[in-house]
Amino acid sequence: MIMPLLDAHNHLHDARLLPWRGEFLAGLPALGVRRAVANGTREDDWPAVAALAAQVPWVLPSFGLHPWHVNERSAAWLEKLIQFLDAHPGAGVGEIGLDRWIEGHDPAAQAECFRAQLSIAAERNLPATIHCIQAWGAVWDILRECAVPARGFLLHAYGGPAEMVAGFVARGAYFSFSPYFLHERKSAQREIFRMLPVDRILIETDAPDLAPPPGQNPHPLAGGDGRALNHPANIVLAYDTLAKIRSVTREELAAVVEKNFARFFLAEKECPPPSVGGG
């Protein structure tokens, strides 16, 4: 039996994947992919997310304004976001968050947009997917001060410090493991995912971003500019890698991730949140 695979965070609608989209949309189910969450990042790509989800039943849509794009937002961006969420019941809110790495970032604007989107996710109890680079303290302050969805929230490709994990867990966080963590400099992240509570683990690709290192990439892919792209089939690599890190079989990890994915992305409002402890 094929092991069910669930990609908690990607951008399958991204134009960079267009030359291969038909191929991987046909091939991923054969690998075992049962669900994949496509995250919008700005107003002008939300229609592409919606179109892909309408075309492919196993794609779950998520709509959000990424911190990289807050300076491009229109005056009506929040109303547009609400319209997309109204039109797609059960869709997630994401990718949202804070980023101090990107050049020209506007901390105040990022925080304003993050708070507004987090508020919508909390009010509707929708799965919120959070991006953070070099802003973990600021993200924590907002998550601690603001309402969060009862089902929790996802810190995708978690790159924060180990000492913050317990607080995030207590607040309702899930954490998704990326094949990018195979890079040698990501040893601290691999150790964090070895120790995470089992009921807070998800798997992602972030395709076409966050490609694994060339020597360990079974699906090398390059865009028109020659830059490496992350093939969505690397979800298999992510599962295999995390299973080894946690010293479990692929089947054991897949069973855990399937339960966590269903609880976070598919649960109804009345479903209880995950336990704080885990194991």
Describe this structure in words.
The chain has 279 residues and is an alpha/beta fold. It has a single domain, classed as TIM Barrel (Alpha-Beta Barrel), CATH 3.20.20. 38% of the residues lie in helices and 17% in strands. The chain contains nine helices and ten strands. The protein has helices at 21-31, 46-55, 77-87, 107-124, 136-145, 165-171, 187-195, 235-246, 250-266; strands at residues 5-10, 33-39, 59-63, 92-99, 128-133, 153-155, 173-177, 201-203, 221-222, 228-229. Strands 1-2-3-4-5-6-7-8 form an eight-stranded parallel β-sheet. A two-stranded antiparallel ribbon has the order 9-10. Strand 7, helix 7 (187-195) and strand 8 form a beta-alpha-beta unit. The radius of gyration is 17 Å and the shape is globular. It starts with a strand and ends in a 13-residue tail after the last helix.
